[in-house]
């Protein structure tokens, strides 16, 4: 028996329509690429998104066309999120950290029709211009006086195009399953793969991730996504903040401590989101200047494991709650979070920091499960490791154009992460499946070892990989880069490590290197390192 | 172009599954029909809902079967919400205030297979037993020792059935559009009509209505739905509270001031929901006893217009925020709410009370619009009246079995209410379409007049209807019942009225009556009164 309720799809355009009705005067504050503060309201954003949709019609963009952006976190990028997806096209966020060859591959794979680009990224596109034949034109996100000298053609000016259009638009009643966004993952191996979001997944994700189960937004919030809008959609904050009426602070290109501190204080930001290194940078700046971040109450931290030392530091020095989160491009991206709970209030501080440094619990709508080598669910005991799989309406069903079939198992997306889940449902990523080290049949977590090494202050970055070993099959070795001006002593580093991990996990070698190789999005290129150091222990034992 | 995200329907069973993972020890506290306090956790509720689903299988209940409940707000009724809908059947909440003939009509129309009944309602069913042939059995919601003497047969005991079943159950992966619940509206005319909810509508409604846009639930909330679970699903709180982890206090049969005050204080309730008369009753009790409700921070009030005097009283005497809301059985039911906002904080108290007494603003997912006589949207100026229509994924598409087609216009559900909307989107119901009085071509609001009359303390209830008039076509007349022991003087009442409404709205006659006729759910039967008093002014002017 079927219910008799309206089948009315909720669309991204409905989010901004609702925001302008409920929160017309709420502010959106951007730091522009010219390092100025731009300030306007949801009403303004709505009117300009309408103008943008009219621009797309004038350019001849068709339903379902991919229209790309290459831009920092700012108000025009926000308009592009709504204008393109609301129009019925697909907003494809190009990652500004990609190498030219990846960028070219992605644009061609997506068959982008137009690219809306912030002026600083024009050189990136010039480099690939001759090899991206689907692109019909480039729109510079700026005023006429900001137009750069460039060989890109045809070339348009965003503000000139908008100024010619009316500021209302009849947003089409699309279907819930119509594609709305496209974002590529840059794996450590192989070509990038596209995740094609639809209106249903984007809106549900915004509804739940903005709720008290996760980001906890309301009209009283002032939130700053430092995590880029060109990468995992800035955690969906461009959709969840307007849905719940939060004031939105978009930090533009500068993610350094000084820029963030200034925005936090001037705009009274109370919640902000970024990877751990950003918060380390902010702390260093605050320590060297004595400046304040009194308005800040919570940082959401993902993209890498939370260093527990930073969790504690932010609590005790800044009275800021460090909320560990986990998600992926493939999960829209938010899935789990270590939100502050009444149970946590009852814990002593150290036990609370332990929980905050996890990835937290699954929000409603997302199922997470760990599977052992026999594909059976592993116990939720905080000890048993398993392959992490995830399922839900904002998790991908298949990659764009059907790639990556091996990533799916029995209706679950296989994340490639190895994780533990405790009895309370708290998830902790302990490794990548490919990065886990199997020593004498037991798993050693490279992530835990890397995280432990950061407690030694001379270590700038640590990378742990498995190297072949005659007796144990594999043993961990650790590569470290050092901070300038800090004394390094391996014995001291080993003392720090052994306090934090099991003795049999201790690396067989610790090697200081000048630099470690990274992907375009800042991930360690472990595949290369594994090849280079595969026989290190065999050779060194000669 | 279609997105490539998982098409995973969210089901009511997912709500309880998620709750037991996130909030296993959160409490559900019930006042039983025996006036005892029962206390257990979401984990307990989950296990018993599993047992209940196994009971349904044993009874031979099929997917889509309607299984009815006739019960107060208590933990077993909660289990029935989840056990029946999660199993794949349709939980049909019978209204305990119905007259026998309506009850019989509804059970037959729904073709209910089983009825789960609280012992106090057994006599209601005995009265209709011989006329409800689809019903295969009756389950008494209680222990073996609580089984009543009754002619109902076949008869089962809830706890005996549950005790025989395992406490796990493989909840089926139903479709989002599968029916999950059925609730009849008792209109003032004609037969009741059924609203058939589905999993999609129920879950989306819970996600949004539990968010900061509306009920604002979290693990830190302790919420008490006084509004009955047998009527408009207790505003969906049985779904939204577990979804967001709120402690749930279910008050059972007693909605008097003493019972509610005791629960509020003993359980530290901070949010509670009921019609205005309940809050008047609580106030009267507090005033006469001097008792406290210090934990209470907010009351949500719907089902009738909010008397502004009570809004003010609750703010100034009890420091409780009175949140006016609006919704209908047809809208799941929540649609609009006057939540506390930063803009309100900036208002002076009297202006804030005005807003709180409205129905508030539409939450995301619901569109509300007012239409003039030409079916064009009326201005949102706080003055222009129009027929209120509503649209969204938790609004009905058509009544059960296709009845009531005239209630739909161009994709909108026509509520039968007349409303105004102001520039900020605040909705105010000013009348029922059928109850509005058209005097000399202008509309007079019976609701405003009735509300104004309640400011005169001798008036117990007021009913305003249009009576035929030679010159003006219709003029308002007011029928009032009086409070015992209070002096009544019509001149004084008129003085109170004229301070609050336009002079030309003043009733042509005010008539004191002994009682006013009501429907089973407490609504005034205006149709009857209009017939009785249609020619009153013509006759009295003879």
Protein architecture, described:
- Two copies of one chain form a homodimer.
- In chain A, strand 3, helix 3 and strand 4 (90-93) form a beta-alpha-beta unit.
- Chain A is globular.
- The longest helix of chain A is centred in the first third of the chain and has 18 residues, at 42-59.
- Chain A is built from 17 helices and 26 strands.
- In chain A, the strands form five sheets. The first copy, chain A, has a nine-stranded mixed sheet, with helices on both faces. In chain A, strands 7-6-5-3-4-8-9 form a seven-stranded mixed sheet, with helices on both faces. In chain A, strands 17, 18, 19, 20 and 21 form a five-stranded antiparallel sheet that branches.
- Helices cover 30% and strands 24% of the residues of chain A.
- The mean pLDDT of chain A is 93.
- Chain A is α/β, with parallel strands linked by helices.
- At the A-B interface, helix 1, strand 9, helix 7 and strand 16 of A face helix 1, strand 9, helix 7 and strand 16 of B.
């Amino acid at each position: 028996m079927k219910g008799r309720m309206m089948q009315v799809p909720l669309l991204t355009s409905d989010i901004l329509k609702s925001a302008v009705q409920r929160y017309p005067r709420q502010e959106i504050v951007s730091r522009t690429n010219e390092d100025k503060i731009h300030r306007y309201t949801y009403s303004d954003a709505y009117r300009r998104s309408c103008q943008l949709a009219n621009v797309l019609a004038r350019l001849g963009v068709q339903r379902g066309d991919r229209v790309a952006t290459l831009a920092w976190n700012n108000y025009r990028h926000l308009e592009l999120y709504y204008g393109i997806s609301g129009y019925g096209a697909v907003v494809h966020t190009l990652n500004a950290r990609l190498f030219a060859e990846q960028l070219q591959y992605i644009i061609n794979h997506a068959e982008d029709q137009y690219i809306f680009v912030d002026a600083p990224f024009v050189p990136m596109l010039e480099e690939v211009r001759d090899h991206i034949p689907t692109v019909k034109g480039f729109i510079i996100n700026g005023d006429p006086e900001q137009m750069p000298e460039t060989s890109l053609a045809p070339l348009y000016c965003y503000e000139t195009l908008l100024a010619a259009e009316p500021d209302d638009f009849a947003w089409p009643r699309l279907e819930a399953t119509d594609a709305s966004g496209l974002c590529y993952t840059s794996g450590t191996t192989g070509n990038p793969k596209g995740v094609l979001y639809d209106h249903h997944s984007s809106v549900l994700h915004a509804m739940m991730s903005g709720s008290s189960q996760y980001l906890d937004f309301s009209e009283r919030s002032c939130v700053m996504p430092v995590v880029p809008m060109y990468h995992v959609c800035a955690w969906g904050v461009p959709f969840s903040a307007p849905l719940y009426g939060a004031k939105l602070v978009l930090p533009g290109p500068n993610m350094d401590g000084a820029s963030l501190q200034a925005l936090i204080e001037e705009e009274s930001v109370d919640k902000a989101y970024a990877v751990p290194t950003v918060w380390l940078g902010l702390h260093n700046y605050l320590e060297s200047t004595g400046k304040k971040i009194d308005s800040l109450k919570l940082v959401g931290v993902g993209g890498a494991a939370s260093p527990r030392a930073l969790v504690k530091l932010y609590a005790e020095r800044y009275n800021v709650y460090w909320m560990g989160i986990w998600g992926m491009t493939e999960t829209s991206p938010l899935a789990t979070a270590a939100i502050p709970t009444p149970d946590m209030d009852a814990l002593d501080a150290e036990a609370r920091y332990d929980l905050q440094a996890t990835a937290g619990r699954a929000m409603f709508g997302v199922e997470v499960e760990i599977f052992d080598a026999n594909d059976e669910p592993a116990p939720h005991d905080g000890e048993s490791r398993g392959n992490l799989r995830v399922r839900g309406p904002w998790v991908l069903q298949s990659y764009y154009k059907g790639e990556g079939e091996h990533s799916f198992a029995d209706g679950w997306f296989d994340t490639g992460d190895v994780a533990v889940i405790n009895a309370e449902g708290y998830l902790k990523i302990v490794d990548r499946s490919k990065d886990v080290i199997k020593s004498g049949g037991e798993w050693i977590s490279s992530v835990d070892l890397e995280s432990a090494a950061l407690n030694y202050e001379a270590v700038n970055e640590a990378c742990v990989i498995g190297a072949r070993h005659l007796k144990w099959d594999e043993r961990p070795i650790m590569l470290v880069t050092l901070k300038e001006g800090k004394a390094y002593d391996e014995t001291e580093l080993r003392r720090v490590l052994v306090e934090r991990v099991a003795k049999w996990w201790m690396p067989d070698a610790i090697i200081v290197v000048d630099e470690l190789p990274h992907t375009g999005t800042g991930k360690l290129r472990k595949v290369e390192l594994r090849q280079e150091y595969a026989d290190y222990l065999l050779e060194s034992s000669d």
